[in-house]
Fold these 2 entries.
Entry 1:
Amino acid sequence: MTIRVVLADDQRLVRGAFALLIGSVPDMTVVGEAATGREAVEVTRAQRPDVVVMDIRMPELDGIEATRQIVADERLSGVRVLVLTTFENPENVMAALRAGASGFLAKSTRPPDLLEGIRVVARGESLLSPAATTMLIANVLSRPESPVRPTDLAALTEREREVLTMIATGLSNQEIAEALTVSPLTVKTHVSRILTKLGARDRAQLVIHAYESGLVRPRPEARGGP
């Protein structure tokens, strides 16, 4: 299956470079480009791609608000947003994930890693760069102690909580399957049920649920971020 991609960036040269990169592989194609956040929403609605590669700082609408509008549109339920920006800081990471982005990478990411990131997001999985993951944890740690909300996870079974904990530590379905001695298909079923029960869009939002509910506690060494 060919992954259909929309590129949203206010710099023509950046869009051109990404288009050339994506065009160099057989399993992807660029179906639209946008120079503003508003155009990104419009092009996405017109093309209904699999993945939108979204810059954060753009005119008219920034990438966060454009992501929020795309995710909120029921007609675009199958579209995933991969935020790609030079501004990798805790506020942007949290804002992007809360807006519904499925991934967050820095523009300094190596080309092969960007391509693989698009593939990961297109499969419905979440993707955070190591720096973004550290920032996410540091952001949670930097807040005043937030109340644990056990009702958030009350619907989960013990095994589903176990799977959620592993997701929050960054394990893939394959790695979770190996740790629990079950099949990857079984893990996928667990993940699907957890997403449904928590009303989460993807694994990135599950990570937020795990930390904010108190199910997972960040390690002290994560305090302070990169």
Entry 2:
Amino acid sequence: MTLAKLAKSLAAETADAAADTALVRNAPYNLDAEMALLGAILVNNDSIERVSAFLDPLHFYDPLHASIFEAMSKLILAGKRVTPVTLQTFFETAEPLGEITVPQYLGRLAANATTIINAHDYGRTIYDLSVRRQLILIGEELVNTAYDSPIDNPPKVQIEEAEQRLYELADKGKYGKGFDPFSSALVEAIEMANNAYQRDGGLSGIATGLRDLDGKMGGLQSSDLIIIAGRPSMGKSALASNIAFNIAKGHKTERQPDGTEKVVNGAVVGFFSLEMSAEQLATRILAEQAEIPSENIRRGKINEAEFRRLKQASVELHSIPLYIDQTGGITMAQLAARARKLKRQRNVGLIVVDYLQLITGAGRNSSDNRVQEITQITTGLKALAKELAVPIIALSQLSRAVEQREDKRPQLSDLRESGSIEQDADVVMFVFREEYYVQRSEPSVAKPDEYAKWQAEMERVHGVAEVIIGKQRHGPTGTVRLSFQGPYTRFGDLAHDSQASLERRGQRD
């Protein structure tokens, strides 16, 4: 009996008895590929390097082949030589394979190995067939669950569970590219510099639409995790939505000679709004574009001219590629799965998360504390940014320690659960509006000297916001002054002459 016939007869003996009926189909597998790969590794141990990045023992159909591959991997990892002789000690007590023992079977695998050149192709065949078997399993479980659907497992939950399993399966083969030669990295660096040179404003990243902020950061860089933090009412959500809108509005592509579309400006934006509803976020953007206070829009306090502006703005905004997910209490795994889906379907170029403390971590129902949970979330967001090669903006709260200081400008140490946030982030920006604090210190009009001084202070800080860059891996830190129009929740550029005047006035004071 040949080796191939022996393996196939053994597989047939271990198959489910139901497979004998004509109506039942066998799961897809290829024992010849499994034997050829194992034989190639026995002949030349270096062959395992061609498949180790994506192939695991669980991908083998035959349990014995899986055990042999696992033993091989462990021995080679330990720096030992793998041959039928060194492997036989692991299988001396194994059940015989019909007429031959497992050690004899190992010898036949090595003797029948024809080539080591195709090791990668054998491994890829084994992996692809394993994925097909897992797809069949997910499909069967989906059908069975749908038939027997219990009360506590509604269709919506079944769909989400199946979707999550499919995304996880699609992502399992992505083990990274391994080492790249420095020459490849140099080419990418030159391409980035060329893009910055060719682009208006000399930006290497995606333009936020805020001139001075872009000048400080060079735009939003691919694979960066960018934290925007601030105390309540400082405008961090407004800044994030302004940036998201500017980038989505500026989205532009060009068709390449090969038929693909290349993004030349802006980006498709995915916005995870965990605090505000999609309607509230849309109202903010409408208020900004139509220059109508958002509270007037919500209460219907608008005249006919304002309504026409509102209608015109809605028509202009209808086609921008801004996608909103308003799911509350979303887990990090769900967020990642939905971001991957948007990347595949729409080629998303920027993701915004408002805000990270509202993401549910894996340890919420375990003994993990909140600091460990935030660590998992920030690590997951950074890994997702690298995987999708897009910048991710995540908003974060600040601790109350800011309120106890005379100077209310935030610092890195004010970040809640700051250790992991500060460590994982590439950029940390704080939004600060001194006007908010000065306004709340209004003295009594019965004290004219104090009131006059307060009015002068309000004039100095009115409509001015500061974005304090506390950390930037590949750029300078410092402060960028922006204009802020509270009724429209809109940030903009300060005129340079006005900014210089404000700075001189601040120095005199």
